[in-house]
Write a structure and sequence with these properties.
27 strands; 22 helices; TIM Barrel; five-stranded parallel sheet; 31% helix; Rossmann fold; binds flavin-adenine dinucleotide; binds NADP nicotinamide-adenine-dinucleotide phosphate; binds iron/sulfur cluster
């Protein structure tokens, strides 16, 4: 049997889960969309078909004050419960099980009527919360209970009580946010009273045969968080009060430590769940950066947890469990932890999707993968970067005869550069996935083949898709021809050796990646230990919250990141990851300058002006990371010859290009939708 631990059923007494994989809660934004429940039903039903043991919905508020945003999803009355039957019935008809997460935002609620144990504004919120009265606290406990009872009426198999990540329940537990001195605050007994009363009220409302997962913040990663002893005391009390399972919560949203980004090693927090093993009899769920069946199996086999939670991996591939069980793991589209199409979109108040799987949350909009086209064609796809790979595999899945031409010696385009950046090794997985899919779908691949128009004209193709990508932009600057000036391409390809004092012209994602490469010391033998040390996480839990101060780790080389525009350097980096990249590089001594005018490169270095003042950066290398321009020299001759030609990815538009757009456009061209 493949992954025997992962696929061992989990007996919960009154019900049995078919395997040990939990699809963790994710707010996708579908919750607030018009016609949301139809879309949610299709989204969850597909994941149920994919064979996951249990799923948890995104956070649903028990009352209006707990809304994450104005008019956010809530479960407060029977008509809402009736509407949710669409979701539960769709899931159960596919043989799946689903819990509804009840989440009260507390001081993280995104509206001005927010409430919290104490009136303390969160650093990531614009609003100061109102302090909850004794009466309101009691009413809120009843709201949790009513919500859970309604979830049962709606047909859910259980609820998850969100007690971590710094939301209301978590706010009651820790001194950081609970400064009350009444029966709801003060010593730990009183700080844990609110979660315990919620737990008891919910159990009383739903009866004994209904799953209640309690998500405990086991490592707050903020000052004045819980001690480990408090975590254990709370978990034991929750078990005694009827919790079915305990899920692991890591880090508050306001914590300054990345806990799920791609730079976090796989399974980096399983040790936290393991610490609690043995203290409780009920199943424990491990979380955070578990993105492959191998990692899940390893955690379970080592006895670190009873179940593993994967959330974003189910955006990337709804069929992860089924493929793993059937021995087709090489065809799993792995979550690369980029946050670009999921969390970053949510923070922009858009519906989430997935960079590597644009069908996620679009199940009712995009035709399903592998649906045969009405008219089969012979299609040439030029360029095997993300756009070309996505188009070629999509077209082949629809039955077309696809020929994929790539100038380079391997598929992947710029992903072959991205995967070399320390902390971006997950990009290998996307290339492994596409490589397996090209083979499965019998795409004819021609490597080391730089296509010229004649070749395509002679090939009798019905259609040509140009996915030829981009070329680096060469800015106009006195001294640009100096030998110390190099392109990021040559540096990342290993054609030129890195300098010791390096100025990066441009401060986009690529400049940050180049700076990461330049300032990373040799790979560590124990990546988890290295990551925990670099970010100041203390596995010995000596202080509240599990923090120690973040050490300064100056790199061996000096690096400057420069940009012409004013304001924060790298402001366009991802919302949920950009801060971590900036912080990590600053810690390594990388200097960042905005409002830079480039004056000259000569033997002394790079001459610049900042705020009108001349400066010399005495560097031995200037790396140009100034964006790109489209490469589409094939387009005009093919068009003139009357061929049907479509442009996608960087070949279509270089500005604001990223892999999310490139892969999405490949799918659109494959299903015959306009590329917009
Ligand atoms: P490309 O990836 O450029 O692929 C084009 C392909 O066409 C190339 O393989 C090329 O050899 C081939 N080709 C060109 N002309 C011909 C021809 N005539 N015949 C045959 N083949 C031809 N994006 C993100 O979203 N997130 C990230 O974290 C991220 N990190 C990055 C890190 C680095 C270091 C780099 C360099 C890029 C990163 N990107 C990232 C950008 C992302 O890789 C690009 O947006 C994406 O690769 C664009 O896809 P594409 O298919 O349009 O073009
Ligand atoms: P980019 O994000 O467009 O950044 C280009 C940088 O060059 C900007 O900082 C810009 O700043 C500067 N610049 C532009 N024209 C210039 C000129 N003529 N002279 C000097 N400087 C100039 O491009 P990129 O960094 O090459 O990245 C390419 C794409 O890959 C991006 O769209 C990005 O989304 C994606 N990517 C993403 C990640 C990620 O982690 N999410 C990582 C790597 C790449 P000023 O104009 O202010 O000087
Ligand atoms: Fe994972 Fe990136 Fe997809 Fe989010 S967008 S699910 S992080 S691959």
């Amino acid at each position: 049997m493949n992954y025997p631990n992962l696929f061992t059923p989990l007996d919960l007494g009154f019900t049995t889960l078919s395997n040990r994989i939990l699809m963790g809660s994710m707010h996708t934004g579908l919750e607030e969309e018009r016609g949301s429940l139809t879309r949610m039903a299709a989204y969850f039903a597909e994941r149920a078909r994919g064979g996951v043991g249990l799923m948890v919905t995104g956070g649903i508020a028990p009352n209006r004050q707990g809304w994450l945003m104005p008019f956010g999803a809530k479960m407060t009355n029977r008509s809402e419960a009736r509407r949710h039957q669409l979701v539960t019935q769709a899931v159960q008809s596919e043989g799946g099980k689903i819990c509804m997460q009840i989440l009260h935002g507390g001081r993280y609620s995104g509206h001005p009527f927010l409430v919290a144990p104490s009136s303390l504004k969160a650093p990531i919120s614009p609003f100061k919360p109102w302090k909850m009265s004794n009466r309101l606290i009691k009413a809120t406990i009843q709201d949790f209970a009513r919500s859970a009872a309604l979830a049962r009426e709606a047909g859910y198999d259980g609820v998850e009580l969100m007690g971590s990540e710094g939301y209301l329940i978590n706010q009651f537990i820790v001194p950081r946010t609970n400064q009350r001195q009444d029966e709801w605050g003060g010593d730990f007994e009183r700080r844990m009273r609110f979660p315990m009363e919620v737990m008891r009220a919910v159990r009383a409302a739903v009866g004994p045969d209904f799953i209640i997962i309690f998500r405990v913040s086991m490592l707050d990663l903020v000052e004045q968080g819980s001690t480990w002893e408090e975590v254990v005391q709370l978990a034991k009390a929750l078990e005694a009060a009827g919790a079915t399972m305990i899920n692991t919560g890591i880090g508050w949203h306001e914590a300054r430590i990345p806990t799920i980004a791609t730079l976090v090693p796989r399974g980096a927090y399983a040790w936290v769940t393991e610490r609690l093993k043995g203290a409780l009899a009920i199943p424990l769920i491990a979380t955070n950066r578990i993105n492959t069946p191998e990692k899940g199996e390893e955690i379970l086999a080592a006895g670190m947890a009873d179940m593993v939670s994967m959330a974003r991996p189910f955006l990337a591939d709804p069929y992860l469990p089924k493929k793993a069980k059937e021995g087709r793991a090489q065809l799993i589209n792995t979550c690369i932890g980029c946050n670009q199409a999921c969390l970053d979109q949510i923070f922009d108040r858009k519906v989430a999707s997935c960079l590597v799987n644009p069908r996620a949350c679009q199940e009712t909009i995009l035709p399903p993968d592998g649906q045969l086209a009405k008219q089969l064609q012979k299609v040439a796809v030029v360029g095997a970067g993300p756009a070309g790979l996505s188009a070629a595999t999509e077209l082949a899945g629809r039955g077309h005869e696809v020929h994929l031409f790539e100038a380079g010696p391997e598929i992947g385009g710029q992903f072959n550069l991205a995967k070399r950046i320390p902390g971006k090794e997950e990009f290998y997985e996307t290339l492994r996935y596409y490589s397996s899919l090209l083979e499965l779908r019998k795409v004819k691949v021609y490597l080391n083949t730089r296509v010229v128009p004649e070749q395509l004209l002679e090939g009798n193709f019905d259609r040509v898709v140009l996915a030829t990508g981009v070329v680096p932009r060469q800015p106009v600057m006195p001294g640009i021809e100096h030998p110390m000036v190099v392109s990021y391409l040559d540096l990342l390809n290993g054609k030129v050796a890195p300098g010791r004092r390096v100025a990066l012209v441009g401060a986009g994602g690529i400049a940050f990646d180049v700076a990461t490469l330049l300032t990373t010391s040799a790979p560590s033998a124990d990546p988890v230990d290295h990551y925990l040390k670099e970010w100041g996480v203390d596995p010995s839990y000596a202080q509240r919250g599990g923090l120690v101060s973040m050490p300064l780790l100056p790199a061996d080389c000096n690096v400057w990141i420069l940009q012409r525009s004013e304001g924060k350097v790298g402001a366009r980096l991802g919302k949920t990851t950009g801060w971590a990249h900036r912080l990590a590089l600053k810690n390594r001594g990388v200097k960042m300058l905005s409002g830079v005018q480039y004056e000259l490169v000569d033997d002394r270095g790079l001459h610049i002006k900042v705020g009108g003042k001349a400066q010399l950066l005495e560097v031995d290398q200037v790396v140009i990371c100034a964006g790109q321009e489209s490469l589409r020299d094939l387009y005009a001759p093919l068009k003139e010859a009357g061929l049907q030609v479509e442009l996608i990815g960087g070949a279509l538009e270089a500005a604001e290009l990223d892999a999310q757009r490139a892969i999405r456009e490949g799918i659109l061209v494959g299903v015959g939708e306009p590329v917009v």
